[in-house]
Protein backbone atom coordinates (compact mmCIF):
# COMPACT_ATOMS: atom_id res chain seq x y z
CA UNK A 1 0.00 0.00 0.00
CA UNK A 2 2.88 2.33 0.89
CA UNK A 3 4.55 1.65 -2.48
CA UNK A 4 1.26 2.30 -4.27
CA UNK A 5 0.86 5.67 -2.47
CA UNK A 6 4.43 6.60 -3.39
CA UNK A 7 3.80 5.68 -7.02
CA UNK A 8 0.67 7.83 -7.09
CA UNK A 9 2.59 10.78 -5.60
CA UNK A 10 5.40 10.45 -8.15
CA UNK A 11 2.94 10.12 -11.02
CA UNK A 12 1.05 13.20 -9.87
CA UNK A 13 4.25 15.21 -9.60
CA UNK A 14 5.35 14.07 -13.07
CA UNK A 15 1.97 14.93 -14.54
CA UNK A 16 2.15 18.34 -12.93
CA UNK A 17 5.57 19.04 -14.39
CA UNK A 18 4.46 17.89 -17.83
CA UNK A 19 1.37 20.05 -17.62
CA UNK A 20 3.55 23.03 -16.62
CA UNK A 21 5.87 22.40 -19.56
CA UNK A 22 2.92 22.09 -21.92
CA UNK A 23 1.63 25.45 -20.74
CA UNK A 24 5.01 27.23 -20.73
CA UNK A 25 4.77 30.54 -22.53
CA UNK A 26 7.18 30.79 -25.43
CA UNK A 27 9.02 34.07 -25.90
CA UNK A 28 11.85 34.99 -28.25
CA UNK A 29 14.47 37.29 -26.74
CA UNK A 30 17.39 38.58 -28.80
CA UNK A 31 20.55 40.21 -27.48
CA UNK A 32 22.85 42.47 -29.50
CA UNK A 33 26.13 41.59 -27.85
CA UNK A 34 27.61 40.01 -24.76
CA UNK A 35 29.00 43.23 -23.33
CA UNK A 36 28.55 43.66 -19.60
CA UNK A 37 25.77 46.25 -19.92
CA UNK A 38 23.53 43.33 -20.84
CA UNK A 39 24.78 41.12 -17.98
CA UNK A 40 21.54 40.90 -15.94
CA UNK A 41 19.88 39.06 -18.83
CA UNK A 42 22.23 36.02 -18.94
CA UNK A 43 22.33 36.07 -15.14
CA UNK A 44 18.54 35.70 -15.09
CA UNK A 45 18.86 32.84 -17.56
CA UNK A 46 21.68 31.19 -15.61
CA UNK A 47 19.69 31.32 -12.38
CA UNK A 48 16.70 29.76 -14.15
CA UNK A 49 14.50 32.74 -13.30
CA UNK A 50 12.66 32.86 -16.63
CA UNK A 51 11.94 29.15 -16.42
CA UNK A 52 10.79 29.70 -12.84
CA UNK A 53 8.17 32.09 -14.26
CA UNK A 54 6.90 29.40 -16.62
CA UNK A 55 8.59 30.90 -19.67
CA UNK A 56 10.21 28.99 -22.50
CA UNK A 57 12.80 31.50 -23.70
CA UNK A 58 14.48 31.15 -27.08
CA UNK A 59 17.60 33.32 -27.11
CA UNK A 60 19.46 34.61 -30.13
CA UNK A 61 22.76 36.47 -29.85
CA UNK A 62 23.49 38.67 -32.84
CA UNK A 63 26.97 39.48 -31.45
CA UNK A 64 27.20 42.51 -33.74
CA UNK A 65 25.51 45.29 -31.80
CA UNK A 66 22.03 46.36 -30.79
CA UNK A 67 21.09 47.86 -34.17
CA UNK A 68 20.68 44.36 -35.64
CA UNK A 69 18.45 43.33 -32.75
CA UNK A 70 16.35 46.43 -33.25
CA UNK A 71 15.86 45.50 -36.90
CA UNK A 72 14.77 42.00 -35.88
CA UNK A 73 12.28 43.39 -33.37
CA UNK A 74 10.68 45.79 -35.85
CA UNK A 75 10.56 43.02 -38.47
CA UNK A 76 8.75 40.73 -36.00
CA UNK A 77 11.40 38.01 -35.92
CA UNK A 78 11.90 38.44 -32.17
CA UNK A 79 9.49 39.37 -29.36
CA UNK A 80 11.73 41.21 -26.89
CA UNK A 81 15.13 42.79 -27.42
CA UNK A 82 18.03 43.27 -25.03
CA UNK A 83 19.27 46.56 -26.42
CA UNK A 84 19.93 50.17 -25.60
CA UNK A 85 17.33 52.67 -24.47
CA UNK A 86 18.27 55.28 -27.07
CA UNK A 87 16.90 52.98 -29.79
CA UNK A 88 13.39 53.61 -28.47
CA UNK A 89 13.89 57.33 -29.15
CA UNK A 90 15.16 56.64 -32.65
CA UNK A 91 12.15 54.50 -33.40
CA UNK A 92 9.70 57.14 -32.24
CA UNK A 93 11.27 59.57 -34.72
CA UNK A 94 10.44 56.95 -37.37
CA UNK A 95 6.86 56.64 -36.09
CA UNK A 96 7.44 53.18 -34.64
CA UNK A 97 6.47 52.52 -31.02
CA UNK A 98 9.23 50.63 -29.20
CA UNK A 99 8.99 50.68 -25.41
CA UNK A 100 11.50 49.92 -22.66
CA UNK A 101 10.01 47.59 -20.04
CA UNK A 102 12.88 47.20 -17.55
CA UNK A 103 16.25 48.92 -17.23
CA UNK A 104 19.37 46.80 -16.84
CA UNK A 105 22.16 49.39 -16.96
CA UNK A 106 21.56 52.88 -15.64
CA UNK A 107 24.78 54.29 -17.07
CA UNK A 108 26.83 54.16 -20.25
CA UNK A 109 29.76 51.98 -19.25
CA UNK A 110 31.57 53.14 -22.38
CA UNK A 111 35.24 54.03 -22.57
CA UNK A 112 37.40 55.44 -25.35
CA UNK A 113 40.75 53.69 -25.40
CA UNK A 114 43.83 54.45 -27.44
CA UNK A 115 46.28 51.96 -28.91
CA UNK A 116 50.05 52.31 -28.50
CA UNK A 117 50.37 54.44 -31.65
CA UNK A 118 47.39 56.70 -31.00
CA UNK A 119 48.10 60.43 -31.08
CA UNK A 120 44.70 61.48 -29.72
CA UNK A 121 44.80 63.72 -26.65
CA UNK A 122 41.38 64.40 -25.03
CA UNK A 123 42.73 67.78 -23.89
CA UNK A 124 43.09 68.64 -27.59
CA UNK A 125 39.89 67.31 -29.25
CA UNK A 126 41.11 68.22 -32.74
CA UNK A 127 43.80 65.53 -32.47
CA UNK A 128 41.10 62.91 -33.08
CA UNK A 129 41.01 63.91 -36.75
CA UNK A 130 41.99 61.12 -39.12
CA UNK A 131 41.64 58.40 -36.49
CA UNK A 132 40.24 54.97 -37.29
CA UNK A 133 37.80 54.37 -34.43
CA UNK A 134 36.39 50.97 -33.57
CA UNK A 135 32.74 50.83 -32.47
CA UNK A 136 30.51 47.85 -31.81
CA UNK A 137 28.39 48.50 -34.92
CA UNK A 138 26.97 51.39 -36.99
CA UNK A 139 23.89 52.83 -35.27
CA UNK A 140 24.99 51.57 -31.86
CA UNK A 141 25.48 53.68 -28.74
CA UNK A 142 29.24 53.46 -29.20
CA UNK A 143 28.62 55.07 -32.60
CA UNK A 144 26.53 57.79 -30.89
CA UNK A 145 29.31 58.35 -28.35
CA UNK A 146 31.78 59.28 -31.09
CA UNK A 147 29.32 61.40 -33.06
CA UNK A 148 28.31 63.35 -29.96
CA UNK A 149 31.94 63.92 -29.05
CA UNK A 150 32.64 65.32 -32.53
CA UNK A 151 29.55 67.52 -32.44
CA UNK A 152 30.34 68.93 -28.99
CA UNK A 153 33.80 69.95 -30.15
CA UNK A 154 32.72 71.38 -33.49
CA UNK A 155 34.38 68.65 -35.52
CA UNK A 156 33.04 67.21 -38.78
CA UNK A 157 31.44 63.75 -38.72
CA UNK A 158 33.72 62.93 -41.65
CA UNK A 159 36.90 63.78 -39.75
CA UNK A 160 37.22 60.18 -38.46
CA UNK A 161 36.59 56.69 -39.83
CA UNK A 162 34.17 54.51 -37.87
CA UNK A 163 34.71 50.74 -38.09
CA UNK A 164 32.45 48.07 -36.61
CA UNK A 165 34.54 45.64 -34.55
CA UNK A 166 31.96 44.07 -32.24
CA UNK A 167 32.66 43.80 -28.52
CA UNK A 168 34.73 41.83 -26.01
CA UNK A 169 37.87 39.98 -27.13
CA UNK A 170 37.31 40.72 -30.84
CA UNK A 171 37.27 44.46 -30.17
CA UNK A 172 40.42 44.28 -28.04
CA UNK A 173 42.16 42.26 -30.77
CA UNK A 174 41.33 44.93 -33.36
CA UNK A 175 43.07 47.53 -31.19
CA UNK A 176 46.00 45.24 -30.38
CA UNK A 177 46.58 44.39 -34.05
CA UNK A 178 46.54 48.04 -35.10
CA UNK A 179 43.43 47.71 -37.26
CA UNK A 180 42.05 50.72 -35.39
CA UNK A 181 43.67 53.65 -33.58
CA UNK A 182 40.96 54.13 -30.97
CA UNK A 183 38.26 51.90 -29.54
CA UNK A 184 34.92 52.89 -28.01
CA UNK A 185 33.60 49.88 -26.13
CA UNK A 186 32.29 48.46 -22.87
CA UNK A 187 33.51 46.07 -20.25
CA UNK A 188 34.88 43.44 -20.44
CA UNK A 189 36.86 45.03 -23.30
CA UNK A 190 37.77 48.07 -21.16
CA UNK A 191 39.29 45.92 -18.42
CA UNK A 192 41.04 43.60 -20.91
CA UNK A 193 42.76 46.55 -22.60
CA UNK A 194 44.40 47.58 -19.35
CA UNK A 195 45.08 44.03 -18.12
CA UNK A 196 46.80 43.02 -21.37
CA UNK A 197 48.67 46.30 -21.78
CA UNK A 198 47.08 46.76 -25.20
CA UNK A 199 46.41 50.46 -24.68
CA UNK A 200 45.09 52.98 -22.20
CA UNK A 201 41.71 54.45 -21.30
CA UNK A 202 41.53 58.05 -22.49
CA UNK A 203 37.87 58.83 -21.75
CA UNK A 204 35.98 56.84 -19.11
CA UNK A 205 32.18 57.04 -18.81
CA UNK A 206 31.75 53.98 -16.58
CA UNK A 207 31.01 56.00 -13.45
CA UNK A 208 28.53 58.83 -12.94
CA UNK A 209 31.21 61.53 -12.97
CA UNK A 210 32.59 60.30 -16.29
CA UNK A 211 29.13 60.06 -17.83
CA UNK A 212 28.31 63.61 -16.79
CA UNK A 213 31.59 64.82 -18.27
CA UNK A 214 30.90 63.11 -21.61
CA UNK A 215 27.13 63.46 -21.92
CA UNK A 216 26.19 66.14 -19.43
CA UNK A 217 24.15 63.64 -17.41
CA UNK A 218 23.52 59.96 -16.61
CA UNK A 219 23.04 57.98 -19.83
CA UNK A 220 20.82 54.89 -19.38
CA UNK A 221 21.84 52.11 -21.73
CA UNK A 222 20.83 48.45 -21.66
CA UNK A 223 17.12 47.68 -21.31
CA UNK A 224 14.60 45.10 -22.36
CA UNK A 225 12.26 46.60 -24.92
CA UNK A 226 9.40 45.44 -27.12
CA UNK A 227 6.96 46.94 -29.56
CA UNK A 228 3.92 48.64 -28.04
CA UNK A 229 1.65 46.21 -29.88
CA UNK A 230 3.43 43.14 -28.44
CA UNK A 231 3.22 44.59 -24.93
CA UNK A 232 -0.49 45.30 -25.32
CA UNK A 233 -1.21 41.80 -26.66
CA UNK A 234 1.04 39.91 -24.18
CA UNK A 235 0.94 41.70 -20.81
CA UNK A 236 1.19 38.46 -18.83
CA UNK A 237 4.33 37.38 -20.67
CA UNK A 238 5.88 40.83 -20.29
CA UNK A 239 5.16 40.83 -16.55
CA UNK A 240 6.81 37.44 -16.12
CA UNK A 241 9.90 38.55 -18.05
CA UNK A 242 10.14 41.70 -15.95
CA UNK A 243 9.59 39.82 -12.66
CA UNK A 244 12.46 37.46 -13.49
CA UNK A 245 14.74 40.28 -14.62
CA UNK A 246 14.13 42.41 -11.52
CA UNK A 247 14.88 39.37 -9.37
CA UNK A 248 18.18 38.96 -11.25
CA UNK A 249 19.10 42.61 -10.60
CA UNK A 250 18.42 42.15 -6.89
CA UNK A 251 20.43 38.92 -6.83
CA UNK A 252 23.40 40.64 -8.52
CA UNK A 253 23.29 43.42 -5.94
CA UNK A 254 23.73 40.91 -3.11
CA UNK A 255 26.38 38.62 -4.64
CA UNK A 256 30.06 38.91 -5.51
CA UNK A 257 31.46 39.31 -9.00
CA UNK A 258 32.83 35.75 -8.76
CA UNK A 259 29.38 34.39 -7.85
CA UNK A 260 27.82 36.34 -10.73
CA UNK A 261 30.30 34.94 -13.26
CA UNK A 262 29.62 31.42 -11.98
CA UNK A 263 26.04 31.74 -13.28
CA UNK A 264 27.05 32.64 -16.83
CA UNK A 265 27.30 30.31 -19.82
CA UNK A 266 30.88 29.86 -21.03
CA UNK A 267 29.97 31.55 -24.32
CA UNK A 268 29.36 34.79 -22.45
CA UNK A 269 32.78 34.86 -20.77
CA UNK A 270 35.51 36.54 -22.81
CA UNK A 271 39.23 36.02 -22.18
CA UNK A 272 40.58 34.52 -18.99
CA UNK A 273 38.14 34.03 -16.16
CA UNK A 274 40.02 36.05 -13.51
CA UNK A 275 40.22 39.16 -15.71
CA UNK A 276 36.57 38.74 -16.62
CA UNK A 277 35.62 38.63 -12.93
CA UNK A 278 37.56 41.87 -12.46
CA UNK A 279 35.64 43.37 -15.40
CA UNK A 280 32.33 42.47 -13.74
CA UNK A 281 33.49 44.14 -10.53
CA UNK A 282 34.51 47.26 -12.48
CA UNK A 283 31.11 47.36 -14.18
CA UNK A 284 29.06 47.12 -10.96
CA UNK A 285 28.26 50.87 -10.76
CA UNK A 286 26.37 50.83 -14.06
CA UNK A 287 23.69 48.31 -13.10
CA UNK A 288 20.21 49.33 -12.09
CA UNK A 289 19.24 48.47 -8.52
CA UNK A 290 15.53 48.08 -9.23
CA UNK A 291 14.91 48.12 -12.99
CA UNK A 292 13.09 51.48 -12.96
CA UNK A 293 13.53 54.21 -15.54
CA UNK A 294 14.36 57.72 -14.32
CA UNK A 295 12.30 60.54 -15.80
CA UNK A 296 15.36 62.79 -15.53
CA UNK A 297 18.01 60.43 -16.90
CA UNK A 298 16.10 59.49 -20.06
CA UNK A 299 16.45 63.11 -21.20
CA UNK A 300 20.20 62.69 -21.68
CA UNK A 301 20.04 60.24 -24.63
CA UNK A 302 17.46 62.50 -26.28
CA UNK A 303 19.81 65.48 -26.10
CA UNK A 304 22.68 63.39 -27.45
CA UNK A 305 20.65 62.11 -30.40
CA UNK A 306 19.28 65.55 -31.22
CA UNK A 307 22.82 66.85 -31.65
CA UNK A 308 23.55 64.76 -34.76
CA UNK A 309 20.40 62.86 -35.76
CA UNK A 310 18.36 65.16 -38.00
CA UNK A 311 15.24 62.99 -37.84
CA UNK A 312 15.23 62.97 -34.02
CA UNK A 313 15.95 66.72 -33.95
CA UNK A 314 13.00 67.38 -36.27
CA UNK A 315 10.55 65.20 -34.31
CA UNK A 316 8.66 66.12 -31.17
CA UNK A 317 9.66 63.16 -29.02
CA UNK A 318 7.34 62.10 -26.19
CA UNK A 319 9.71 60.36 -23.80
CA UNK A 320 6.80 59.01 -21.73
CA UNK A 321 6.03 56.69 -24.64
CA UNK A 322 9.57 55.31 -24.86
CA UNK A 323 9.46 53.44 -21.55
CA UNK A 324 7.10 52.18 -18.88
CA UNK A 325 7.62 51.46 -15.19
CA UNK A 326 4.20 49.82 -14.85
CA UNK A 327 5.55 46.24 -14.99
CA UNK A 328 8.60 46.95 -12.82
CA UNK A 329 6.37 48.53 -10.18
CA UNK A 330 4.34 45.30 -9.97
CA UNK A 331 7.39 43.04 -9.67
CA UNK A 332 7.81 41.25 -6.31
CA UNK A 333 10.62 42.66 -4.17
CA UNK A 334 13.01 41.10 -1.70
CA UNK A 335 12.75 42.05 1.96
CA UNK A 336 15.80 44.35 1.72
CA UNK A 337 13.88 46.57 -0.71
Automatic annotation (TrEMBL):
The keyword Signal applies. It comes from the Bacteria. Gene3D superfamilies: Periplasmic binding protein-like II. Keywords: Signal. It is found in: Periplasm. GO terms for cellular component: periplasmic space. GO terms for biological process: alkanesulfonate transmembrane transport. Residues 1-24 form the signal peptide. Belongs to the bacterial solute-binding protein SsuA/TauA family. This is Nitrate ABC transporter ATPase. It comes from Skermanella stibiiresistens SB22.
